[in-house]
């Protein structure tokens, strides 16, 4: 394939992804859905041939997944885990355990092998609360107790989900013996411990503590200035002569941890997630979100387009009943599990939290990609997981609004009537 054809196909894929995303955004739906649909539409004609004959798009997709998971990791601040509380932790734990167990046993009961069932269960564990946050914000509930529990549980949920993915992907490369399971668990715990404990300390020492000072500019507006201090010395980043030194160093860490995770037999994107995790407390210091946003805008759409192109609906009718059952299990698993975790806060809060944790979004699709690339799940199972991620993401806003409105009516109906005084 020559350069002209490659550039043309990049242009077509990127344009289709952005048009699809724009259409979904105008419909107040996640842009990722439009990007996936663009890939599904282009797959039969263009992109399916590219992924077979040319690996360039696979590289773009892998880079997109890497920076996507790095961004997800940056949103998961370790310092906030102490503020999550017992309720949010129980929501996250049951929200991981119930969907995984249900997804695994239902999949084995229907037709999936043990390893395939484990990947399906792992995909059902994932939670993407971005759409939930937007719905709650639109309804004026972003600062409510339910929103705090959901966002707090998402912090723990992301870490637990990555640990489950680490274990499952490690088990997939060998036989399912107790020894192999123990080795994979030990590797996962060591990797998580080294990155989160040692990595965060190294990052804190290297970047320094930044004090924020607000000064008034000549226009009368307030501007933010940072003062660097760490153990009575300047940050290592500030001593480097390289342009955009923090950005360059963090890129090196992202690729290094991704390679390290792949070297020990784990998914490379797990390394990228934990890279984001260790830099999450310093992302505002160096404006990391703003600096990585252009990379995400460029590369992440290619990931979803390629993932959509890999969905094969040719033989989908044979597994359609299975897809419907797994979708129902995905919705009920989070709704029941997370609601039970928040039940001590009342029925209304529990149901809203359960509904808010339903969308799987991009994380479930990443799990499907890993299973397909490792050869541990088939094309039909991959298509089912992608469909489940899309349906739960699209259905979640309607479910959340329905639960909130229904519970609000119940609260109003159950209030004692006020007694009128006087004649």
Keywords:
Na+/H+ antiporter like fold; mainly alpha; 423 residues; globular
Describe the structure.
With 423 residues, this protein is mainly α. It has one domain (3-410): Na+/H+ antiporter like fold (Up-down Bundle). The protein contains 16 helices and 2 strands. The chain has a two-stranded antiparallel sheet. Helix 3 (56-74) packs across helix 12, helix 6 runs parallel beside helix 16 and helix 10 (245-263) packs across helix 11. The longest helix has 35 residues, at 379-413. It is globular and about 60 Å long. The N and C termini lie far apart (90 Å).
Share of helix among residues? over 70%
Uncertain residue ranges? 210-214, 224-233, 415-423
CATH fold-level assignment: Na+/H+ antiporter like fold
Q: Give the CA-CA distance, first to last residue.
A: 90 Å
The number of distinct β-strands equals: 2
CATH architecture verdict: Up-down Bundle
CATH class: Mainly Alpha
| Class inferred from helices and paired strands | mainly alpha
Note the total helix count. 16
C-alpha Rg, in Å?
Answer: 23 Å
Instruction: Tell the overall outline.
Output: globular
Count of separate structural domains: 1
Strand sequence of the main sheet, in spatial order? Answer: 1-2
Q: What is the element string, with H for helices and E for strands?
A: HHHHHHHHEEHHHHHHHH
Q: What fraction of residues sit in β-strands? A: under 5%
**Mean pLDDT across residues:** 77
Taking the sheet with the most strands, its summary is: 2 strands, antiparallel
